[in-house]
Design brief:
Mean pLDDT: 96
Number of strands: 13
Strand order of the largest sheet: 3-2-1-4-5-6-11
Number of helices: 13
Strand content: 15-25%
Distance between the termini: 45 Å
Shape: globular
Helix content: 40-55%
Order of helices and strands: EHEEHHEHEHEEHEEEHHEEHEHHHH
Low-confidence stretches: none
Largest sheet: 7 strands, parallel
Structural class: alpha/beta
Length: 322
């Protein structure tokens, strides 16, 4: 097939596009062209690159025309964040494209009440981002089930992979946590440290998108949580992370007010956003309908990312990984 990937140079596209090329598809990557993929792969030589500013072209009402003009059999949209943008693309592709796949987020569900969370069992989303992702997923499902464009939405957890900083044990991207864990220094943990975060390796997300393309009929009108087979809580994540450096985690329980006063405002807010949701998801639906089989446990995915950052001089630690 001819597959257009919107946002192809990002986290997921870095792994997805080579997968699609190796599967024999003709692949077009649409991106702003401001950077290359996170890792090198010879498959990129066979990819047609199209430069476009999604936000600017959405504002002008021409982005859908650009995508439709590429005459795709399937479109994988990795960078859609508003209902208006998603609706405009659906309306333009309806009747012309065989399958639209959208990248959502587990944040379309709010704070957990019962875990693991299923696609139908979450609470209403909180925050602008999660509310928008939930609205897009509802629109896509309704579009397909009313006889319109065939769509599928996939909802990754906290994406991890070589080339970028992972969400760490405190629920943010502050790299100082790794320095402290590697040195055996204490870290302040807000709450009781039992809050879950659900990571996923970018290549496992790519696998799920590829599977949804292959199993189009099973995926039609459906949405899927795409995460690792298990989830880490704050305490366990810190203990595992410290062990990579031959250390034992020293955790000090503090209140959220104390945590905010000792942490940068933005980092503390990011921690709150992740930990208040306390997310742990089921992948049973994706396994059953798509054959989704993630290769990475969450700690293995994060370790790969941390090791890459250290090896490339982008993360300072007190001791090497053992």
């Amino acid at each position: 097939m001819r597959i257009v990937v919107v946002g192809g140079s990002g986290h997921i596209g870095t792994f997805l596009i080579p997968r699609l090329v190796r599967a024999g598809h003709e692949v077009v990557s649409v991106s702003r062209g401001q950077r290359s993929s996170y890792t090198d792969d010879p498959a990129w030589r066979d990819v047609r690159q199209v430069t476009a500013d999604r936000a600017a072209e959405d504002a002008e009402g021409v982005f859908g025309d650009r995508v439709a003009g590429l005459r795709p059999d399937a479109v994988i949209d990795l960078i859609c964040f508003t209902l208006d943008s998603a609706t405009a693309l659906v309306e333009r592709l309806r009747g012309e494209t065989g399958h639209l796949l959208h990248c959502g987020s587990i944040w379309r569900h709010g704070p957990s009440q019962k875990v693991p969370i299923t696609e139908e069992g979450g609470t209403p989303p909180i925050g602008e981002y999660g509310i928008a992702k939930a609205a897009i997923a509802r629109m896509l499902r309704g579009e397909t089930r009313s006889g319109g464009l065939v769509t599928t939405s996939l909802h990754p957890g906290h994406i991890v992979g070589p080339g970028w900083h992972p969400i760490g044990p405190l629920g943010n991207n502050d790299a100082t946590v790794w320095c402290k864990l590697s040195a055996g220094e204490p870290i302040d943990v807000p709450g009781i440290g039992a809050e879950f975060m659900h990571h996923v390796h970018a290549d496992d997300v790519a696998q799920a998108f590829e599977a949804a393309v292959v199993h189009r009929d099973a995926a039609a009108g459906e949405d899927f949580s795409v995460v690792a087979p298990s989830a880490l809580n704050v305490r366990g994540f810190a203990e595992i992370g410290a062990s990579w450096f031959g250390q034992t985690a020293k955790l000090r329980t503090v209140t959220w007010d104390e945590f905010r006063s000792g942490t940068g405002g933005e980092a503390a807010q990011v921690s709150w956003e992740h930990l208040v949701r306390n997310h742990y998801f089921s992948i049973d639906k994706a396994r059953r309908l798509l054959g989704y089989a993630p290769r990475y446990e969450p700690e293995a995915a994060v370790l790969e990312s941390v090791r890459w950052l250290i090896d490339h001089g982008r993360l300072d630690v007190a001791n090497p990984i053992e």
